[in-house]
Design a protein that fits this description.
single chain, about 70 residues, mainly alpha, elongated
Amino acid sequence: MGIPDQMGSETLTKAIQKVVDSAKKHGKASGIHIGSTEAIRKWREKGMTVLACSTDIGFMYGASKSTLEEMKR
């Protein structure tokens, strides 16, 4: 689509919504793998049915960072 790293772009949002609507119309699941809980909520509200948030590495990084910051205090 020529819009890398622009997950908030209106063009991409419309394209994803078109997929969600088409999947719903044909009785199929639609899904996304995205790192933001806010985006997960947004797409769930818009009808998406398969939602994956972050990755195992992302969760481990977040927990490690949080623990390290706590230990520094």
